[in-house]
């Protein structure tokens, strides 16, 4: 499951979003300062500005799972479906089709159409799907982290449990059909294969050759000859698969255009033409692409600008056509004052939060609790959100956002009320004279994160904490998550609005996006039940129980539900607001120049 970061991609509870899709486009609306009847045309170029900077062509790994990496992947790859701005799964029959062929056992068959190919001319095949499955499922892993034995192969940002509960897949002799049989029910089977709106984005033939294998089929045959990993009985690492996995994990990481063209192959509407580290990227039309909607624009230029004033200035000067700045009341007012600019504003399926590492100084629950009691959540809401949303309040759920129906009921019983008010005196009592040093990591190029850090640091100091500024740049902070070297981090999760695996993706023991190493066996059991539960009311009940357990652990604090702002000039048409991790990119093929 793809959870984009508002600053980092993976999730709030997607299950409730799916169940309550009528309110999932919460608060969406637009304010247009100008309109034009000029006709759109085929061709032309548009410039889009993003807050974060691109750093890898593999957005599926725990390190690579950021919003900008996912958006570029979406524009340059295609697959069996995408999610529209009503949070509906739309099947793409031009790429291929998939169908559930059995309920018991759950069996799903995927077929790729003839003519679908990578930009080097190699056909997209079921072997590419097999690599996606292998990487997403952790099927071959037998690592026991406590005993420090066994091997972990592929890095995955998502929760591997659902796809791990499968038999080894079947691939037809012509390489066109991939059949997956589950050993347990899986609620998210429809969106299980493919990342970032169902895209198949990592070419198996490239990974195979980097591991010394002849082709994608050779990689599949290698995996077929291996047993499923068993941490209770770890085996010597398969060195060839380990080499393939290591390349998959890091071989696509780059801030500049590689000289090796195999590292940025496309099977989607656009191909990357140029990259300038931490500054920009240029996409051009993939002239061979026929297995999806034909995009209008010949070229899309992506610029990375963290500063909202700088984004606004670029739009005003005609140096940008579409921007998605960090939202603030000043930003919205300035945008609405620009002639010829349309402003879309709404709540996002996203929230900002501060997470505390369950090791180091915060291994002590009393120290975690003390720190949480110092966080001025109301002040943060007042400074960052209140002027845009007068009804905004501190977020009191780790699972739901306020526009979701289960939110209010979950908040009543989840234990969040213990942190309704800052309590410096109680924090001091819990510290009992200790003065812990806390390094807080965040995106220092993101003004909202800077404001949150400043308020948190000032208050924590009052209780005796010694705060160290661990802020990192816009293309570096995401890769630092989970690597240690800090004690707390401020960032945001944003989800695609479909599926349920976003909850275990973040909170289940050992998962790649569980960056602070939270672990609760009883919560793990509830999450295992969650991904096997198809009844949406039962999903919500399980999520409420999980929410309570996360709060009881002194996990950290949700801060606020995010407000989204997009703005675009009258030089382009087809831009539509989207509350999930794809943002305006969800329908990039409809963008057109006037």
Question: Biggest β-sheet: count, sense, barrel?
Answer: 12 strands, mixed
- Spatial shape: globular
Radius of gyration: 23 Å
Mean pLDDT: 90
Q: Strand percentage, roughly?
A: 15-25%
Helix count equals 18
Q: Which residue ranges are poorly predicted, with pLDDT under 50 across at least 5 consecutive positions?
A: 1-39
SS elements, strand count: 20
Task: Kindly report how far apart the N and C termini lie.
Answer: 36 Å
Helix residue percentage = 25-40%
Output the structural class.
alpha+beta
Write structural notes for this entry.
The protein is of the alpha+beta class. The chain has helices spanning 14-19, 67-76, 126-137, 161-164, 204-210, 216-224, 239-250, 308-316, 329-336, 365-374, 377-384, 406-413, 424-431, 447-462, 477-480, 502-507, 521-531, 536-552, and strands at residues 4-5, 29-32, 45-50, 81-83, 89-91, 96-103, 106-112, 170-171, 177-181, 270-276, 280-285, 299-304, 322-323, 341-356, 437-441, 466-469, 488-494, 556-569, 572-573, 592-593. Helix 14 links the parallel strand 15 (437-441) and strand 16 (466-469). Helix 5 packs across helix 6. The protein is globular and about 70 Å long.
List strands and helices in order, with pairings.
Layout: E1 4-5, H1 14-19, E2 29-32, E3 45-50, H2 67-76, E4 81-83, E5 89-91, E6 96-103, E7 106-112, H3 126-137, H4 161-164, E8 170-171, E9 177-181, H5 204-210, H6 216-224, H7 239-250, E10 270-276, E11 280-285, E12 299-304, H8 308-316, E13 322-323, H9 329-336, E14 341-356, H10 365-374, H11 377-384, H12 406-413, H13 424-431, E15 437-441, H14 447-462, E16 466-469, H15 477-480, E17 488-494, H16 502-507, H17 521-531, H18 536-552, E18 556-569, E19 572-573, E20 592-593
Parallel strand pairs: 3-12, 3-13, 15-16, 15-17
Antiparallel strand pairs: 1-17, 2-14, 4-5, 6-7, 7-9, 8-9, 10-11, 11-12, 13-18, 14-17, 14-18, 19-20
Helix pairs in contact: 3-6, 5-6, 5-7, 10-13, 11-14, 12-18, 17-18
């Amino acid at each position: 499951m793809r959870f984009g970061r508002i600053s980092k991609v993976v999730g709030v509870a997607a299950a409730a979003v799916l169940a309550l899709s009528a309110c999932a486009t919460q608060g969406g609306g637009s304010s247009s300062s100008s309109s034009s009847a000029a006709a759109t045309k085929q061709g032309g170029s548009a410039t889009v500005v993003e807050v974060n900077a691109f750093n890898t062509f593999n957005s599926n790994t725990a390190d690579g799972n950021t919003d900008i990496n996912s958006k570029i992947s979406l524009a340059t790859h295609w697959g069996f479906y995408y999610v529209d701005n009503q949070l509906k799964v739309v099947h793409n029959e031009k790429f291929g089709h998939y169908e559930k062929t059995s309920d018991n056992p759950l069996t799903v068959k995927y077929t790729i159409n003839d003519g679908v190919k990578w930009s080097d001319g190699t056909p997209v095949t079921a072997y590419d799907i097999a690599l996606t499955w292998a990487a997403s499922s952790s099927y071959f892993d037998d690592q026991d982290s406590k005993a420090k034995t066994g091997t972990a192969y592929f890095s995955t940002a998502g929760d591997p449990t659902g796809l791990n509960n499968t038999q080894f897949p079947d691939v037809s002799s012509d390489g066109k059909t991939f059949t997956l049989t589950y050993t347990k029910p899986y609620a998210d089977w429809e969106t299980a294969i493919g990342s970032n709106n169902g895209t198949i984005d990592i070419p198996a033939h490239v990974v195979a050759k980097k591991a010394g294998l002849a082709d994608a089929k050779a990689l599949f045959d290698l995996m077929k000859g291996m047993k499923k990993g068993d941490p209770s009985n770890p085996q010597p690492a398969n060195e060839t698969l380990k080499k393939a996995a290591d390349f998959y994990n890091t071989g696509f990481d780059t801030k500049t255009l590689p000289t090796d063209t195999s590292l940025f192959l496309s099977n989607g509407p656009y191909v990357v033409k140029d990259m300038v580290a931490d500054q920009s990227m240029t996409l051009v039309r993939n002239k061979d692409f026929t297995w999806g909607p034909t995009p209008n624009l010949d070229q899309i230029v992506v610029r990375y600008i963290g500063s909202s004033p700088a984004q606004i200035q670029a739009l005003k000067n005609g140096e940008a056509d579409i921007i998605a700045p960090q939202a603030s009341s000043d930003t919205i007012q300035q945008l609405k004052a620009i002639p010829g600019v349309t402003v879309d504003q709404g709540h996002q399926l996203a929230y900002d939060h501060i997470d505390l590492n369950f090791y180091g100084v915060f291994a002590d629950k009393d120290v975690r609790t003390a720190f949480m009691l110092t966080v001025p959540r109301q002040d943060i809401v007042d400074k960052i959100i209140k002027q845009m949303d007068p009804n905004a309040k501190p977020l009191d759920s780790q699972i739901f956002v306020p526009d979701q129906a289960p939110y209010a009921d979950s908040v009543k019983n989840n234990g969040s009320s213990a942190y309704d008010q800052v309590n410096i005196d109680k924090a001091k009592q819990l510290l009992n004279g200790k003065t812990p040093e806390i390094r807080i990591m965040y995106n220092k190029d993101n003004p909202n994160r800077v404001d949150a850090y400043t308020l948190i640091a000032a208050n924590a100091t009052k209780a005796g904490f010694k705060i160290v500024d661990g802020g990192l740049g816009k293309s570096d902070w995401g890769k630092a998550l989970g690597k240690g070297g800090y004690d707390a981090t401020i960032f945001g999760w944003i989800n695609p609005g479909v599926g349920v695996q976003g909850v275990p993706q973040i909170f289940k023991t050992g998962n790649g996006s569980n960056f602070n190493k939270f672990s609760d066996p009883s919560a793990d059991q509830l999450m295992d039940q969650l991904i096997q539960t198809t009844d949406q009311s039962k999903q919500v009940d399980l999520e409420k129980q999980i929410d309570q357990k996360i709060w009881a652990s002194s996990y950290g604090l949700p801060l606020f539900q995010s407000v989204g702002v997009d703005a675009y000039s009258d030089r382009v048409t087809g831009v539509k607001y989207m509350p999930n991790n794809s943002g305006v990119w969800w329908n990039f093929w409809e963008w057109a120049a006037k």
